[in-house]
Amino acid sequence: MARIALLLLIVQQAVLKLPVLPEPWLLWLAMPFALACLGYKSLRVLGVFVLVLIMELSSASSLVSPIALTHSLHSPARVEAKVISLVEQTDEGAAYDISIRKAEKSELVGVRFKAYQATERADEIPSPGSTIYGLLIPQPLHGTTNLAAGYSDRVAVFEGFDGRAKIKHLVHEDPETRGWLPLQIRHQIAIFVASAVPQEFAQVLSAVTIGSTLRLEQDKYRLLSATGTQHLLVISGLHLSLIGWGVFKLLRLIGCRLGVCTVLACLAACAYFLISGQALSAQRATLMFLVLLLGQAGRFNLGRFSGYWIAWIVSLTLTPFASALPGFWYSFGAVLVLLLSHRGFQQSVWKDFPRVLLSLRVQIALLLGLLPVSSMLLNSSALAAPIANLVAIPIMSFLILPATLLAELSFLLNLALGHSALIEMADITLKLAVVGLKGLWWWLECVSEFLPTFQAAKLPVGYAGLSLLMVLLMLSGARIISPGLLCVVLMPFIHPKLARPPWGSLNLLVMDVGQGTSVLIQSANEDWLYDAGGLTRFGFNAGERIVIPELRAMGIATLDKLIVSHNDADHAGGAPIIKRKLKVVSTIEPSKKNCIAQPAWVVDGVKFQMFTWQQGKNTNDQSCVLQIKGLGFKVLLPGDIESGAELALLPSLDRHIDWLLMPHHGAKTSSTPGFLNHVMASTVVASAGFANSYDHPHPIITARYQNRGSAVVTTIEHGALFFRADRAGVQLLMSARKRYKTFWGP
Questions:
Q1: d(CA 94, CA 120)
Q2: Could you give the CA distance from residue 376 to residue 624 in angstroms, rounded to a whole number?
Q3: CATH level 3 topology of 73-175
Q4: What pTM, to 2 d.p., does this model score?
Q5: What is the 8-class DSSP label of residue 543?
Q6: Which of 59, 212, 401, 733 lies in disulfide reach of 320, CB 3.0 to 4.6 Å?
Q7: Residues 6 or more apart in contact with residue 416 via CB below 8 angstroms
Q8: CA-to-CA distance for 457 and 554, rounded, in angstroms?
Q9: Tens of pLDDT along 159-187?
């Protein structure tokens, strides 16, 4: 069974890497060959492999490439659609998922969008399950693509979404208030929780009960990440065990027959799975519970791993490309570590651990086992996790979760029976859960102050896979892997020795941060960051979500200099979180007024010089301009300077620049003919967001550069861009979209 599960995973991952899919007729030709192989014992393995490959390729054909809707961009269409998710409300509107039922354009029928509706009126916001009528402005999934993180919208692609959309002039028909469909039940539970407890606790309790993390405060999420306790808000085996085994034991206590208890417990687990959001972790836990319970009821002698591998196979079969989702790796990875370490604890590797510290050694095993997974997924690991979970898991297991599940059950019984005592019980138990949450937050805040988080460097997949295998072997008790050898193998994740440019050269990494700017300047011994990415009004922090993971994936934990060109949110928004998460030796930013014209200085054989136009009438014209000169190359990063600053700074700037960051993302107020004639840049890079409302870089400006012989590249088209500046000039070595070119990508 394990071989089949691993075969499914390997084939699925291989298919995901394909740049294009084979023609459908090739699959039909392969089918008879696979069936014929099954008839011969020596070829049976090949036949199974081909059948699995055909199945995965067939599933892949259902994925819509994000570029498929490009022709519909900014083209409004009247539609009838259904809201298929919970609704996230903000002060400026609402976000929700929709499925198109009818549309003026036939190609939109059946398409699923992540929709946003701009409105300040609560009565205009639909409820889950509503039918809506309105004007839809679709756009394809595009996201950002970076060298370490890859394509940011891949989760939406594999969850079956085909694009994003804005909704205008909306009319909606709400479903019955007390409907019993899973989505309506989730909505009613969320409303009840929000009305019963303060908002700061309602967000967390909604995640615990129905798997909804909508409106979860960023500070709380950061605290959970810093202590390695994010899993507490994930519907998992703990939830299903309390529900399923609770129902089973209760029915047995009142004298029900074994078969009746088994069936009703299975139904209870499945019902909870449906209203919990149906995440991969909940699916895995439900399947494992069903296998275990049915095996015991049927008196089947199932091994410890049987339920695990069955859940693995079913998940990969029912959820096409589940292995592309981070939840698959964390859910199945954590359970595999627990299963293997249970055996390993009896071996000599673990014999020195006191029995009273069983929970601690379990958490240490999880920290080690998931380190390579965190490296591949660019997620941080918390040194505080083993200590934090020692207290957090019991609080969640014995107080918060039982109280919230009892409140959920009481609320649902009240909906069915209409008895006021039930709603009072639900209210009391929720308040008890709040008491537990207060204690939990206090503990996590205490622990987070003493032990930091770290993000493992992103090493080659082969090395990460080998490291994971060695960790699992040691946890299982295999004597061929010693703790000392494992430490040596894992050390590169924590303290990597990655290649740096030679003396006198530079690496330039223009990160894809959407509508904004962030450029890493790497010399032989120092790392500089020019601008920190943006902070949007919807709370997306590119500094936290993109810049920091990219830097840490490269093994960069210290910035020798952070230069914030000016205070606009798309350049400075990520600076505060970067200064908190990374060690920054020196900062140049408008608030310090330390970006002033000064003599050039030399770092690792490369000359740097800064300029600013102090008389600029706006923040754009006062941008901090960085000019870099080395043997064989000239580089210029001008921030958002406009025509006035371009003219004023012209005498200070070098002629014939090899590499230029396009001023103000390519706005029409910048890149004047006089400036272009002076710098005559060979390569021009525009950092801008896909389908941005400013039309950056403007076609007129792009043409203005191209008419002067400049090669123009944009993060919109290429994603993150990696350049090497040396004696030969400045060469583009790698683009993220080319590196991650797949049949399902942009």
A1: 9
A2: 36
A3: OB fold (Dihydrolipoamide Acetyltransferase, E2P) (2.40.50)
A4: 0.87
A5: I
A6: 59
A7: none
A8: 6
A9: 888 888 889 888 888 776 556 788 889 99
